[in-house]
C-alpha cells in the first residue's frame, strides 16, 4: 500500500467532509465511469414523496450488483455517491493474483484468522491452504498479509471446489479523492457495521434520541422533508466499543408500512446522523424503484407487525444526542479513528490499496480483525 501522506485538507460539505469539493470529485468520477462500465446514472428521488436526493449508477456487465445507489443532502452529492460506490465495487470485482498461497500457520500474519468474519458453517483451521493479499497496518505502517477472500468480492462462480471459510462482502470497501479519505470512510463503515451487528446479535435496540437536539440545520432540513411526507422517523444511538457516534434511522408510514433502516458512523455526530437518515430514505427508494439486484423477496411480509413495532418505539422518550465533532483535517480524523478502532478490536486495522492508475480513483479495502459483521444484514 502506498504511504498515507499527511492529508491536511478538508472541504466541509453538507452532511460530509471530503478532500475536494463536489465538482472536482464528480469530474474524477465521470472520467472513470466508462472504464468501470457505468452506462448511465439515474435520479430516482421523485419516485418517493420524501425528496431526499437518491441516485443509481448502472453497470450492466457488473460481476456483483448491476445497480449501485447513492444518497446525499444535495443532488450532486447523491449522484457522486452512486458513482463512487459503483467504481469501488468494480475494483473489488477484478481478478487479483495472490501474494502467497499457504495455510495460516505458515503465514503467521500476526493475528488469528478466526477473528475475521467467517461463514457459518466453515472449515477454517490453521492448516487450511488459503490465498493471501499484501496489507499494511494503519497503526505503524508494517506489512502483513490478509486472506484474499476478505479483499476481493465477486458473485462470479469459481470453477472447482474451495473450502468454506471466511465471509466475502463489501464491508470496509471505500473510494475517495485521496487514499486517506478512502481509508477513513472504509474504517467508518467497519465500525458502523460492528455496532449494528452487536445490536442485532445481542437483542439490543440502542437509545432513542431526538435529532432536533443536535441543532443542525442540515439534519433539521432532512427531518422536515420526512415530516412533510407524513413519514415517521425514529433515530437510535448504538453503542460502539470505539465510542464513536453510530446512529440508526428508521422510516415508515401508513401508506408504505415497511420500516426501512439506515446507519451512519463518523467522528461528527451531525455527519453520522445525516448518513443514517439519508441511507434510510435510500433503502426505501431501493424497494420503490425495484431495480437493485439484492432486494429481499419477503420484505413486504408482516408489514403490519413491523408497523406496530415502529409505533411502539415512537412512544419511548427520546434523549438528547451527544454532540461530537471531527478534527480539523482528514489525516487527523484518520489517526483518531485508527487509534479508537485498534483499542476496541484489539488489533491494528489493516488496509489494502486497490487503486488502479488507469482508473484514477483511490480505492481501499480495510480489514479489521476482531470486528463483527452480520452477513444477512450486510
UniProtKB/TrEMBL annotation:
Record domain YcaO: where? 70-378
Tell me the segments the record calls region Disordered: 298-326
Which keywords appear in this protein's UniProt record, sorted alphabetically? Ribonucleoprotein, Ribosomal protein, Transferase
Query: Is the keyword Ribosomal protein in the record?
Result: yes
State the name under which the record lists this protein.
Ribosomal protein S12 methylthiotransferase accessory factor
Q: Which PANTHER family match?
A: RIBOSOMAL PROTEIN S12 METHYLTHIOTRANSFERASE ACCESSORY FACTOR YCAO
Recorded hits in InterPro entries, A to Z, give: YcaO-like_dom (IPR003776)
Which terms in the GO cellular component ontology are assigned? Answer: ribosome
Pfam families, A to Z: YcaO
- Do the record's keywords include Ribonucleoprotein? yes
Basic and acidic residues composition-biased segments: 298-310
Q: Which GO terms describe its molecular function?
A: transferase activity
Q: Which organism is it from?
A: Nonomuraea soli
